[in-house]
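For the sake of transparency, this paper describes our internal protein records without simplification. The tokens are whole numbers drawn from a learned vocabulary of local backbone shapes. One such record is reproduced below, unchanged from the form in which we store it.

. . .
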Amino acid sequence: MIDLNADLGEGFGRWQLTDDDALLTSVTSANIACGFHAGDPVIMRRVCEHAAAAGVRIGAQVSYRDLAGFGRRSMDVPPADLAAEVAYQIGALEIFARAAGAAVGYVKPHGALYNRCVRDPGQAAAVVEGVRLAGTPLPVLGLPGSELHAAAAASGLPAINEAFADRGYRPDGTLVPRSEPGALLDDAERVVARCLAIARGEEVSAVDGEPLRLPARSLCLHGDTPGAAGLARRIRAELDGAGITVRAFA
């Protein structure tokens, strides 16, 4: 059994980066941008409505306040401020999720915040505090063994292991930075093969060729990857064809 998630709602005003409706036909969980790295009230409302209609679980993709940098620039935000900003983003999305007859089911940091929370216990604890401040003990989606998961476990929040279909990995199980070679996988055959291997609990290859096992309850496909919607359809079909149940974890 595996969950398939993707980043949705990554647009602003008339600008749209992700093909939300097409991705919603394949994924089981939607990481919806909450306005800090992308997204706006109109987009958030629309994607929540469409996700609810499709039976796709809604997740809050929280970020540093960085529209200009798409949330991919690391920032030194005071923990109390970050906790408040995380709670603010969750609360904003919850309004639109409830209006659509659904609810926010989990939280996932985006971009630089996601990567910072792998190794920074202070920022990780602030994200978890923000989840708790929002009022519901939501599951937190992140890398296995991360500081984010340690903070979530310490606070009694469910920590859900995630693996990436289209990102390169270092031998230690962390992601290759986007500024380095091998950060993105653009070979569809390789991406599909990796997804099947992860779902079956088999080893995959790190960027240096070393074998790596990625324990995961959820697989992420980036919505802004070229051809993401078509790739998501293929991944879903391959998982279904292999007898692997694709179901939301939340």
Remarks:
- DSSP finds eight helices and eleven strands in the chain.
- The mean pLDDT is 95.
